[in-house]
Amino acid sequence: MPTSTSHVSASNLGLTIGELGVITKGWSLKNDILGKDVFNDANENIGTVEDLLVTRDKAISYAIIGVGGFLGMGRHDVAIPVYNLRMNKTRVTLPGGTAEGLKALPAFSATTES
Predict the structure, then answer these.
(1) Which domain holds residue 82?
(2) Which of 35, 37, 83, 112 has its CA 20 to 30 Å from the CA of residue 29?
(3) In a domain? residue 16
(4) What is the CATH number of the domain that holds 82?
(5) Is there a domain that residue 4 lies in?
């Protein structure tokens, strides 16, 4: 039976010096985004960034925002396109968003691929 072997060179696994310089100017998901409160234009806390969905082509497409609940109980998670969010080093904002509006959206639930 024929077998297929995959050869991956070390240069395909890591970053080049140029790429390293670019990513150091980006966001850290863990430090800058995940777990951060989400505010609207009226400075109201409307939820928390619980997760980010990344496509296979390295694009972050949706932010999962948790709304309501206490210590994760009763929380309503919704998927919001990341292009709707505004981010700076201290704050994540969803212009025009409200907690009630987010709660009215369909709940997001991660499913496993079979």
Answers:
(1) 28-103
(2) 112
(3) no
(4) 2.30.30.240
(5) no
Cα 109 to Cα 98: distance, rounded to the nearest angstrom: 21
Closest CA to 93 of 30, 35, 43, 25: 43
Report how many domains make up the chain: 1
pLDDT in tens, the chain (114 residues): 455 555 544 556 666 766 555 555 556 667 778 899 999 999 999 999 999 998 888 778 899 999 987 665 788 999 999 999 998 778 899 999 999 999 999 999 876 444
Place of tokens 């995940």: 34
- Radius of gyration, CA atoms only, the chain: 18
Q: Are 38 and 49 in contact (CB under 8 A)?
A: yes
Other CB atoms within a 10 A radius of the CB of residue 11 amount to 8
